[in-house]
Automatic annotation (TrEMBL), chain A:
Catalytic activity annotation: ATP + protein L-histidine = ADP + protein N-phospho-L-histidine
Protein name (database record): Chemotaxis protein CheA
Record carries keyword Nucleotide-binding: yes
Biased composition (Acidic residues): 250-260
Length: 691, 169
């Protein structure tokens, strides 16, 4: 991907702005009078419109224009933000997204959204929110929204502006601005030299000259807006209508109240628009200043880097770690103390570099959480269930790739909670619960893992129904004895769904089994806890990163394999003679608990003679524990995980490969798969013996 | 890198390698490097065709043995054995793979005129694995169809179930 492509840059920015916009809208729904939220929503719209037009996304700019106007009304208190407006704005946000992603496609639906918006602006808020509001006010609102009135008498407008101090640095050309202003109508330009400092303190890169431009036009407000599109937030600008008024009147105006201005003006139509500009120019100063400050600080302390470069960096660090391991190995064999010292130094440096690099890839999970607010909002509307969505632990950091891959499973779990977990408001009321259901999404560190939970206070899993369904599908035998845990876990079986009827959400052919697979693929586990009547919790436990893990190196026959250390519980010696009197009964007694074991030599079809003293590495995955019999435990090592190519993707016993200190490749065991294989082996064995 | 259609004469710059007792030609443009024999990590339960993994400058790369696909003898590696690291298309995705060669000869141009379509009969190799047969110095050079060879589903899907059965018995 070419990162210098300006269109792509715009897209990237716009995506972020749209996310911001969505978050702002959802917040606004909770708190419709919050001026900060209204302002930030307006700003996001304004920026999308402005840069959209600049990068040739004219459809976007045109579409956003009306929304910007609408939110400008809200900003000025002429319209109230209400749920109808927010609903249509969310639709609009989706529409803008589509327009940005595929500008060449003819994307329809925009007109309906705009028509809907016009209806709401025209009548909606006035009727529902403040019925006492005078009709005249609503009319003004409408007038402002409509195209400029037919040509009326032109007037003289006086524009005075000073450019922001950094305007020249960012490439603003005052001469061009003046030319653009001249296109609006006949102009008379005067330079304002009152701010030019003494020569010895003059900074030539700062624009010190201001301009007074008298323009003859009907209503130049919109045109002036366009000229100063990218400057207006930080510049000083006043616009007054001179008309018959004297110059002193006009000059006394700058800090005058917008209301006074609109009253003073004789023509009713242009009044609100003049007020728009007047209201924007003096007020944004302090507010914008503060906003820009935080933005500047944020820009200085963080850096946006394309994801591919981070991936590349991680790859390089991975290679460095491998090369360092090789060096350490050679140094270990050598008697050269200088070499040993360098090898140790390099080991320290590379492990530091590894940690720092992994740190760069860590992203707060909050970025992912915010996405689900919209989901909940939509689901709530679609299913008619009022839902309160609570998030916690947004600061918890996880590997970027991990966060990306978690999005889909979490969407599914949340959908599931809302669709199957939460009861309808009536049922809740009947059960003595508050009608509003609660869905809680939280993330928390636990050791070298992160636990992410989706909790609902719904009806809980219906174990009887799960059981019936599983029997019906042939997943379990009718007389099988299962613990509650095991019953809960059945929902992850392929093709399993507890929904009695197929709603628009369930029955999409994607089930919890897909969630399970994805989480397995991330080397994570899922726990389910559920209490009838009180709700369920799904907890995902995931490693912090995917790229480098600590591993235990073992030997099986002539091959060396790495077992993820996080999965290793303990190592024991395989009791001698256990074969002799326990044929076909591969269990170990570990402190009173039966642990089945797999002989990796058999699993891998190794021909070489077994070691006399074989070791058992006991690994766990979720609930299950399985012993893996190996010939030798070599030791622990840092393992840079390399994906296997498609040629080997069919082989399930391995989750990847790594390169050892001596440069050879070792396969990484997929413990989840091996545990499952071990358990199924036990099951078969038990049923086999029972039969 | 669009491949010419099957059964169409093509002229190519090729790296010639020997497998068992036959000369093969692989597209030189796809060859990344030629390595001396490196330690090969066996992948348990993988098909013979791609039974190993090697380390190529910090990358884990599958090692393919074309001799399996052509049903040839597989002599033990000797001092002439090389690994040709090349880019092959797998389901349209470029993938780096190593190819075991009993000997690497040279890079040569094979004229389109000298290349013939693989005959449908009278050949010990599966015709779909062969793009054409070139002639040089009175001998034949086989031009394998790498895409087809690496596309074969049987090459990829390991007999996983079988291995689990084995562990159970």
């Amino acid at each position: 991907m070419n990162i210098s492509d300006p269109t792509e840059t715009f897209r990237q920015e716009a995506r972020e702005l749209l996310d911001q916009l969505e978050a702002g809208l959802l917040d606004l729904e909770q708190d419709p009078a919050n001026a900060d939220l209204i302002n930030s929503t307006f700003r996001a719209l304004h920026t999308i419109k402005g840069s959209g037009a600049m990068f040739g996304f004219t459809a976007v700019a045109e579409f956003v224009h009306e929304f910007e106007t609408a939110f400008d009304q809200v900003r000025k208190g002429q319209t109230k933000a209400n749920s109808a407006l927010i609903e249509v704005a969310l639709d609009a946000k989706d529409h803008i997204h589509r327009l940005i992603e595929a500008p060449e496609d003819r994307i329809s639906g925009g007109d309906e959204i705009l028509a809907h918006l016009r209806r709401i602006i025209a009548g909606g808020p006035v009727d529902t929110e403040t019925p006492v509001k005078p009709k005249a006010k609503a009319k003004t609102t409408k007038a402002a929204d409509a195209p400029p009135p037919p040509p009326a008498a032109t007037a003289i407008w006086r524009l005075e502006f000073y450019l922001p101090a950094d305007a020249l640095i960012y490439g603003t050309n005052p001469a061009l601005l003046l030319e653009e202003l001249a296109e609006i109508g006949p102009t008379r330009v005067t330079a304002l030299t009152d701010r030019i400092p003494a020569l010895d303190v003059l900074d030539p890169e700062t624009p010190h000259v201001g301009w007074r431009v008298d323009i003859e036009a009907v209503d130049p407000t919109a045109a002036i807006d366009d000229v100063f599109l990218f400057l207006r937030d930080t510049m000083e600008l006043t616009l007054t209508r001179l008309d018959e008024r004297t110059e002193t009147d006009a000059q006394a105006e700058p800090d005058g109240e917008p209301d006074a201005l609109s009253e003073a003006s004789s023509a009713p139509e242009p009044a609100p628009t003049a007020a728009t500009l007047a209201a924007q120019s003096p007020t944004p100063k302090p507010r914008q200043g503060a906003g820009a400050d935080t933005a500047d600080r944020a820009a200085a302390s963080s850096l946006r880097v394309p994801a591919e470069r981070l991936d590349e960096l991680m790859d390089r660090v991975g290679e460095l770690v491998i090369a360092q391991a090789r060096l350490s190995q050679i140094a270990g064999l050598s008697s050269d103390t200088a070499l040993k010292t360098i090898a140790e130094e390099l080991e320290r440096l590379s492990s530091g570099l590894r940690d720092t690099t992994m740190g760069i890839r860590m992203v707060p999970i909050g970025t992912l959480f915010s996405r689900f607010r919209r989901l909940i909002h939509d689901l709530s509307g679609e299913l008619g269930k009022p839902i309160e969505f609570i998030t916690a632990g947004e600061d918890t950091e996880l590997d970027k790739t991990m966060i990306e891959r978690l999005a889909d499973p979490l969407v599914h779990l949340i959908r599931n909670s809302v669709d199957h977990g939460l009861e309808s408001a009536e049922k809740r009321a009947a059960a003595g619960k508050p009608p509003k259901g609660v869905v809680r999404l939280s993330a928390v560190y636990s050791g070298a893992e992160v636990a992410i939970s989706v909790t609902d206070d719904g009806a809980g899993l219906d174990t009887a129904r799960i059981r019936a369904k599983a029997e019906e599908n042939g997943l379990i035998a009718p007389d099988a004895k299962l613990t509650e845990q095991e019953l809960h876990h059945l929902i992850f079986a392929p093709g399993f769904s507890t929904a009695k009827e197929v709603t628009s959400l369930s029955g999409r052919g994607v089930g919890m089994d897909v969630v399970k697979r994805t989480i397995d693929g991330l080397r994570g586990t899922i726990d389910v806890t559920s209490k009838p009547g009180e709700g369920s919790t799904m907890t995902l436990r995931l490693p912090l990163t995917l790229a480098i893990i600590d591993g235990m190196l073992v030997r099986v026959g002539n091959g060396r394999y790495t077992i993820p250390l996080a999965a290793v519980e303990e190592c024991v010696e395989l009791p001698e003679g256990i074969e002799a009197h326990a044929k076909g009964r591969n269990f170990l007694d570990i402190r009173g608990a039966l642990v089945p074991y797999l002989r990796l030599r058999e699993v891998f079809g190794t021909a070489a003679e077994p070691e006399p003293h074989q070791k058992v590495v006991i690994v766990s995955s979720g609930e299950g524990r399985v012993g893996l019999v190996v010939d030798q435990i070599i030791g622990n090592n840092q393992t840079v995980i390399k994906q296997l190519s498609k040629l080997h993707s069919g082989i399930k016993s391995f989750s990847g490969a790594t390169i050892l200190g001596d440069g050879t490749v070792a396969l990484i065991l997929d413990t989840a798969h091996l545990v499952a294989a071990g358990q199924s082996y036990v099951d078969r064995n038990i049923t086999g013996r029972a039969a | 890198m669009s491949e010419p259609q099957d059964h169409q004469p093509l002229s190519m710059t090729a790296l010639t390698i020997r497998l068992d007792d036959e000369l093969f030609a692989v597209e030189a443009g796809r060859v990344r490097e030629i390595l001396d024999l490196v330690p090969i990590t066996e992948v348990p339960n993988a098909p013979d065709f791609v039974g190993g993994l090697i380390n190529v400058r910090g990358r884990v790369v599958p090692l393919a043995d074309l001799r399996v696909m052509f049903g040839m003898n597989r002599p033990e590696p000797d001092e002439d054995t090389r690994i040709v690291v090349m880019e092959v298309d797998m389901d349209g995705e470029p993938t780096i793979a190593g190819i075991l060669a009993d000997k690497v000869h040279d890079v040569t141009d094979i004229e389109a005129a000298s290349i013939e379509e693989a005959p449908k009969v009278g050949m010990r190799w599966r015709p779909e694995f062969i793009k054409g047969i070139g002639k040089r110095n009175g001998g034949f050079i086989i031009i394998p169809n790498m895409e087809r060879i690496f596309e074969t589903p049987g090459a990829r899907n390991a007999p996983v179930a079988a291995s689990e059965e084995r562990s159970a018995s």
